[in-house]
């Protein structure tokens, strides 16, 4: 069975050997002898002593710094881990940067269609409020009213309610405003108040109702205009 001796014990043993050799040499020197005896008694010149010192120094260095041989491996392992970590984190960055752009054109298409419809209504000679309403709705109920008339106020409310029942757009045009009503009178002649007009895209007059009209009649006229368009 092999007996293993730790590094500190080996160092102590070697130092004991050196002391024994030194002590023996000193005794021989004190006992007298020739020049050869003096020469052989000096421990520092003895090859065995020199080798023992070298082994003891190496063992002492290993005992003081037991982790020196493992440092490069640890460094390589750390570097490898950092490299793998860098590779792992690089992929999500690339994926995140590649994602966003698929449905960007959709709002632009919708805006272009509305702009084209608005241009079509204005080119047809419709007043701006009506052209804007047709750009947002395929059918629009128009109430022609005089703001100073109580009857026109009730007719205005019935026309708006009828448009809501039919799911149509609604706009009121003041008969006293040349900016609002002037272009329509150029096309349709003098308009009575109150009155209800129903327009469909792009700028078609689908129904014209003079006088007071209740909401059910307005809704029916808007439904008929939507089916006909």
Q: How is this fold's topology laid out?
A:
Elements: H1 7-30, H2 35-41, H3 47-64, H4 71-98, H5 105-123, H6 128-136, E1 139-145, H7 150-166, E2 169-174, H8 178-188, E3 195-200, E4 204-210, H9 215-228
Parallel strand pairs: 1-2
Antiparallel strand pairs: 1-3, 3-4
Instruction: Tell me what the CATH architecture of the largest domain is.
Output: 3-Layer(aba) Sandwich
Q: Counting H and I runs of at least 4 residues, what is the number of helices? A: 9
Run of helices and strands:
HHHHHHEHEHEEH
CA-based gyration radius: 54 Å
Number of domains: 2
- Could you tell me the CATH topology label of the largest domain: Glutaredoxin
Number of strands: 4
Give the overall average pLDDT.
75
* Main sheet: strands, sense, barrel: 4 strands, mixed
| Span between termini | 109 Å
Q: If strands are numbered along the chain, what order do they take across the biggest sheet? A: 2-1-3-4
The portion of residues forming beta strands comes to 5-15%
The helical percent reads 55-70%
For this structure, what is the CATH homologous superfamily of the largest domain? Glutaredoxin
Text of the CATH class of the largest domain: Alpha Beta
Low-confidence runs: 32-42, 69-90
| Structural class based on helices, strands and sheet pairing | alpha+beta
Which shape, going by the Cα principal axes?
rod-shaped
